Amino acid sequence: MRLYLLTFACVFIQMCYAQVHENVKPQEVFAVVDFLSSDVLMGRETATQGELIAAQYIQSKLIEAGIKPYFKTYLDSFDSKGKMGVNVVGFIEGNDPVLKNEIVILGAHYDHVGFGHKVANDSIANGANDNASGTAAVLTIANRIAKSKANKRSVIVALFSGEEKGLIGSKALAKKLKEQKINLYTLLNFEMLGVPFIDRDYEVFLTGYELSNLGDKLNAYTNSTLFGRSDVATKYNLFSRSDNYSFYTQFKVPCHTISSCDLTNFDFYHHVDDEIDKFDSAFMAEIINKLIPGIIKICNTYSKEIKMYETN
Q: How many other CB atoms sit within 10 Å of the CB of residue 287?
């Protein structure tokens, strides 16, 4: 009987990991980016109808994946200069009775700037790369984790609005979670992943690479040289310019942004031509599929291996 139970347990675990490694297909990420960057959403500016449509779409993707709301509902509001902005927050409970009390956050901002300077009768800044791409990454990765049920640590899935207004959505959520005294292990934020580099010995960079061992650990966990350090990102301090910084400020644990765009390989930042036709879905699906085993490893190590470096 014990042998039967042990065999069953091993088969169950193998099945869970098989589900995790079910590849994300290019058309899956394309569909998310295509919807979020459509003209119907009018550039997804915070506290607009377009933002709300985007939030409801993201909520539907969390429900589809079987991801529960972290709060009473998925939509968590915050103040945006007297108007209401909305974060979308889901929760995947860990399967270990002890480690489930530790939290990994997967985050990305889904808002954009609304309208920009008109080009060829087009004034809608659709934000396909910035940051429908990062939103698609979070939704597809969270989908695989939720369906596998292979995570020992719990995962908060956070899609922020208000990033383009000064990180106000992530600041509000970070403050709220700090007040709840969650045990945050690390946060991975995803930003502008839709365009590959052509001249690097790595595929994506980590903002603030030198501040913690997260990049090195992810390379080890994925048996790759996927992650590197961008000198451009360091020069312009991109570590403090995306939603990871809101959580680093509150928790002082490794909170970084993952990106394939430091603006040297993309000419359409906050431009109306940041459209779906610039988006490389095959590249992005490949990056996501390489990342998933590393993220699962982060969720499952028995000790906290991701650490900030000591500074003098």
A: 23
- Specify the residue for token string 């699962």: 296
What CATH number corresponds to the domain at position 78? 3.40.630.10
3-state secondary structure 197-254: CCCCCCCEEECCHHHECHHHHHHHHCCCCCEECCHHHHHCCHHHCCCHHHHHHHHCCC
pLDDT in single tens digits along all 312 residues of the chain:
544 443 444 444 444 444 445 899 999 999 999 999 999 999 999 999 999 999 999 999 999 999 999 999 999 999 999 999 999 999 999 999 999 999 999 999 999 999 987 777 789 999 999 999 999 999 999 999 999 999 999 999 999 999 999 999 999 999 999 999 999 999 999 999 999 999 899 999 999 999 999 999 999 999 999 999 999 999 999 999 999 999 999 999 999 999 999 989 888 788 899 999 999 999 999 999 999 999 999 999 999 999 999 865
309 is a domain residue: no
Asked whether the beta carbons of 226 and 291 are under 8 A apart, the reply is yes
Contacts of 28 (CB under 8 A, 6+ apart): 140, 285
**Residue 252 is part of which domain span?**
2-300
Q: How far is CA 128 from the centre of its chain?
A: 15
Record the tokens describing residue 109, joined without a space.
């901002």
Q: From CA 100, how far away is CA 162, in angstroms rounded? A: 29
- Is residue 307 in a domain? no
Alpha-helix residue ranges (DSSP H) falling in 48-132 = 49-64
Residue 168's SS3 state is helix
Determine, yes or no, domain membership for 312.
no
**53 lies in some domain:** yes
Give the number of domains in the chain: 1
